[in-house]
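Reopening this one. Same input as before:
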Amino acid sequence: MITVNGCRIDLSEGNRNLSDCLDAQGYRTDRVVVVLNEVVVRRNAYSSVILKDGDVMEVLHFVGGG
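Same output, byte for byte:
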């Protein structure tokens, strides 16, 4: 189990890396910033970051305005 934006989710074996988890949750990786355990994760590292039980992740969306 990990926490994403305050909600606990169960990770399936196929969603253990950050990129797969974001895809499974419906996030567009080109439009979000991820903070994992209080550390900003670089977008080019998403596929190499392996999630562990107890991780806390915040997914922040870019918002445009005018």
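So the earlier flakiness isn't reproducible anymore. For the record, The first helix runs from residue 18 to 24.
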